[in-house]
Every structure is written in structure tokens, then in C-alpha cells.
């Protein structure tokens, strides 16, 4: 069933090597609408290398900030020169932290170059048992809805969630949140550490705005072909 939203592809360039990240970015440049650089790359290579790896592609800077409000706000100031299109914080940092991140973005970035502030809800590597071990009772979807509502009410532009929570989030929060969805596995791909997964077509049908795909592309024998196949799957799902 079509919901009228198109789903775009973000490729996660998870490596400790700048030349490798640049090579992957060049290979996926057609099908990928954005590249994601995260903790592994940034800690290993540094912020100047993030700029080099992203090249001219829109940048999803996935550093999942989670600290006291003052520190998160200051960190966002330190990242501003990279001009990311999206950046992440953890929703579990709470209202004051999310609001401080919002304020830092609004005060640090020019109005026409503000990144989307995305709040990570429950990591896609966690199932219900893993969630319960952290002391959170109830279902994963209930926790995603709780954190999603808090984040949007505190100033986030969107949420990172799994495909399984898209419909409940849309029912609870409407069309406003930009939903960015990792935990994507083309049919037959290894799950790795991901627990809450769907295929690209399923995520598109569920209404993801963006899907994030790393290893199924970057560990493929032909990353360009793997990315093109996922983009084609998204096109087919929409028609
Ligand atoms: O809940 C989350 C939040 C972020 N991620 C990130 O997405 C990619 C997924 O990579 P795969 O290789 O396709 O599993 C990775 O960079 C994570 O840091 C996530 O998976 N889940």
C-alpha cells in the first residue's frame, strides 16, 4: 500500500580509514542521497577527515550525543563547521538535553543551513530482553513511543527508530517527525548485531523517510551494485 512518502537511501561509511570512506562514497554516489559518518570513523580519523570523506555529499553526522545539556550544546557548536544535514542525540538524555541541543542548533547555524536534529529512541540492535536489562519494563514499541513523544515535544525534528515502530509513531505523532531508519537488511543479508530489521521495500512500505544501510553495501563484493539494487527496491516499493 502506498502512503505517498518517498524513502531515500543513506549509506553508513563505517570504517577507520579515510581513503576507504572516500572510495565507498564515490562508489555509491548515484543511489545514495546522503552519507553517514559516525563514531567509528570520527574517533579514528577526526573531524577534518569527516569533511574529506563526505566530499560534496550531504552529511548525516551520527555521533549520538548524550551528556549534560551544557556539554551537548557546546559539542554541537564544535561540530557546526562541518555543516551536517542531520545530527543525532540520544532521546534518553531527557527534555533539558534535547532542548539545549535545539537551542544550540538554532543559535549556531545559519537559518538556511540548520541540520535536522534527530533523537535516537531505542537502538535497532536491542530486542525486548535487552531493553528490560536496562531497567525499562514494557515493550520496545512503548519505549520508542515514550521517547519519541518526549523528543518531538522538546524540539527534535525527527527520530531514529526501527521499521517496526514507524506505524505506531505515525499514529501517535502524525506526519511531522522525520523518521530515519537503520536496521535494514535486503533479503538474504546477514543480520549481524541488528535485531529489529526489515528489508528496504518493507521499510519503504511502512513509511520510512530515510533508510540507513551500512554493511550490506560496504561489505558487498560490489558496493555500487548493492547500493543500486537497494535504490531500485525502494523505487519498486513506491510504485
Ligand atoms: O538504532 C540505531 C542507530 C544507529 N544505527 C547506525 O546505523 C548503521 C547501520 O549499519 P549496518 O551495517 O547496516 O547495520 C550503523 O552505522 C549504526 O551505527 C543503527 O544501526 N541503529
Could you explain how this protein is built, in words?
The chain is α/β, with parallel strands linked by helices. It has a single domain (8-238), classed as Aldolase class I (TIM Barrel), CATH 3.20.20.70. 44% of the residues lie in helices and 16% in strands. The chain has eleven helices and eight strands. It has helices at 18-27, 39-45, 47-54, 69-79, 95-108, 128-133, 140-153, 166-173, 200-206, 215-218, 223-238; strands at residues 8-12, 34-38, 59-65, 86-90, 116-120, 158-160, 178-181, 210-213. The protein has an eight-stranded parallel barrel with strand order 1-2-3-4-5-6-7-8, surrounded by six helices. α1 (18-27) runs parallel beside α3, α4 (69-79) packs parallel to α5 and α9 runs parallel beside α11. The chain is globular, with a radius of gyration of 17 Å. The relative contact order is 0.16. The mean pLDDT is 96. The chain binds the ligand O=c1ccn([C@@H]2O[C@H](COP(=O)(O)O)[C@@H](O)[C@H]2O)c(=O)[nH]1. The ligand O=c1ccn([C@@H]2O[C@H](COP(=O)(O)O)[C@@H](O)[C@H]2O)c(=O)[nH]1 binds at residues 12, 14, 38, 120, 123-124, 160, 182-183, 192, 194, 212-216.
Amino acid at each position: 500500500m502506498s502512503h505517498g512518502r518517498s524513502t531515500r537511501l543513506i549509506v553508513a561509511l563505517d570504517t577507520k580509514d579515510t581513503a576507504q570512506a572516500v572510495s565507498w562514497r564515490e562508489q555509491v554516489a548515484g543511489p545514495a542521497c546522503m552519507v553517514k559518518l559516525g563514531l567509528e570513523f570520527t574517533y579514528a580519523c577526526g573531524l577534518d577527515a569527516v569533511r574529506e570523506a563526505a566530499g560534496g555529499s550531504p552529511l548525516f553526522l551520527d555521533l549520538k550525543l548524550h551528556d549534560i545539556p551544557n556539554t551537548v550544546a557546546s559539542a554541537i557548536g564544535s561540530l557546526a563547521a562541518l555543516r551536517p544535514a542531520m545530527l543525532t542525540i540520544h532521546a534518553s538524555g531527557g527534555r533539558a538535553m534535547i532542548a539545549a541541543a535545539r537551542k544550540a542548533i538554532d543559535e549556531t547555524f545559519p537559518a538556511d543551513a540548520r541540520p535536522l536534529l534527530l533523537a535516537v529512541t531505542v537502538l535497532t540492535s536491542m530486542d525486548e530482553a535487552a531493553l528490560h536489562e536496562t531497567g525499562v519494563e514494557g515493550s520496545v514499541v512503548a519505549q520508542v513511543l515514550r521517547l519519541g513523544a518526549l523528543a518531538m515535544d522538546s524540539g527534535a525534528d525527527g527520530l531514529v527508530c526501527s521499521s517496526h515502530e514507524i506505524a505506531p509513531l505515525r499514529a501517535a505523532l502524525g506526519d511531522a517527525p522525520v523518521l530515519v531508519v537503520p536496521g535494514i537488511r535486503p533479503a538474504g543479508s546477514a543480520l549481524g548485531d541488528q535485531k529489529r530489521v526489515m528489508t528496504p521495500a518493507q521499510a519503504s512500505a511502512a513509511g520510512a523517510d530515510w533508510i540507513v544501510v551500512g554493511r550490506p553495501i560496504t561489505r558487498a563484493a560490489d558496493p555500487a551494485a548493492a547500493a543500486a539494487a537497494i535504490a531500485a527496491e525502494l523505487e519498486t516499493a513506491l510504485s
